[in-house]
Amino acid sequence: MRLLMSLVAVALIGLGLTTAPASAEVVSRSENAFTLKFEGQTRLGTAGVADAFSEVGLWWDPAHSYTGSAANLSLDLAPGGCWCEAMPDGTQFDQGRTVSIVLGEIRFHAPFGPLRDMATRADLIVTYPLVGGVVTPTWTFIVEGPGVGALAEPVDGVIGGGFARWIAHMDARAAAL
Asked: What's the domain of life for this entry (predicted)?
């Protein structure tokens, strides 16, 4: 079933049949901080959004993993749970941690990639309200730390790509229902 959903997601992206982010932007940036925001729509109901997010190995871009394989990524949505990557030596690399999860919102401490050594704060806030009968997921990524402002655009590209792939994954799940 996972393989089928991945193939459907790739097909939907390729055919342009997935909902695209309605907006993606660098909301604010200074020398030592930036905030990114992504908003889109999905055909998947609110009940399936958190599960779809937890299937990170099916939607994350493998080029933005340490092992080159998104299948090595896992995500535990329980508070304190690890957003981890299984390394070839059998260890787990801690990409981030789930801070909280309530209906309609998941919060992570997520100092991805180079932010691990630079950020004093790296919070990813995922919301998915029902707006006018449509699930409207939003990611807000707040990053603070010495010199991190220079990374706003490259991080925007990586996180924005992840957001678009997640939306496509949710739409593939909805199409498979």
From this structure: Bacteria
Mean pLDDT (whole number) for 71-84: 98
Would you tell me how many other CB atoms lie within 10 Å of the CB of residue 133? Answer: 5
pTM beyond 0.85: the answer is: yes
Q: List, in sequence order, every residue forming a beta bridge with 127; answer none if it has no partner.
A: 105, 138
Residue 51's contacts (CB-CB under 8 Å, 6 or more residues apart) are: none
Where do the domains of the chain lie, and which CATH numbers do they carry? 2-176 (3.30.530.20)
What pLDDT, in 10s, does the model give residues 116-175? 999 999 999 999 999 999 999 999 999 999 999 999 999 999 999 999 999 999 999 999
Half-sphere exposure of 152 (CA within 13 A, CB side): 21
d(CA 1, CA 145): 41
Considering only CA atoms, which of 175, 154, 163 is closest in space to residue 40? 163
Give the pLDDT mean for 24-43: 96
| CA gap 112, 118 in Å, rounded | 10
